[in-house]
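Entry 14. Ran structure prediction on the chain below.
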Amino acid sequence: MKVLVAHTLPPSEGAATRIPGEFDLHEAAAAVGSVLPGAIIRGIEGRDEEFEGLLREHRPDVVFNLCEAPLGRPELEAHAAALWESLGVRFTGAPSRALALCRVKDRANSVLASEGIPVPASGTFPCVVKPAEEDGSAWIGRESICRDLEEVRLAVARMPARALVEAFIPGREFAVSAWGRGRAEHFSIGETVFANGLELVTYEAKWLPESSDYRDSPVSYETEIDAGLRGALVEAAGRVWSAVGARGYLRVDARLDGSGVPHVLDVNPNPALGRSGGIRAAAEAAGWSWGRFVRAQVDWAR
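Output, structure tokens:
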């Protein structure tokens, strides 16, 4: 089977409005290709004609899709998947519909709520102000937690576009990874362990290893999670998978309310696939080798 590992290239530093390294998929592509003998790895800027050109040149049986930010624009991730769909090639990861839905956070919340999946409420304090249509914790900082209307006003003014204001859930936070052929079959749960007053995952915590926020929010797969809580988190992630139409793999971020009920904060239908951290760490914590995980994704491509 011929596999093409296709990834988008990061924007130039002058063109980037976020950290260019956030969109550097070279490492992820190399990690995927390292366990797929004969795989072809190609990076593209993300112009429409480049997708067709890759297929015409290499004629792959499957595309391992790592096209997360065509033209340096993460809002075009769903468009990349739609192009693969229109070209009739099997590809890994989420379909365009799931990617488009999960990017618009309030719309995704409405879908989850309609399925009875708890999400943060609105109109209460403390609250969190975040972009309604961004990913990767962009524009989220310590000041995103607001405790009065003036703090909300200032936080909304910092947003580059439409803002979402939702209740801050004070309990433990978990990253629940799920993967499977047609449904969520395998799960791995990590807990974000906050320290030194940090209360949420900020943009720096996610993308700047030298920052204090990064050091103060590690994800641990060794913290204590009792059977009841584990079951509730797994059930929530499985229901989210079905609600958004996920495929291949998925990450759900959830926090516990005062009664210990998981509330879904965010749904990432194509989480990071680097050499360390992200869903690779999750799969390995569940006893899967990296090679097994990658090969399964190729087998499950549609």
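The first strand starts at residue 3 and ends at 8. Will compare against last week's run tomorrow.
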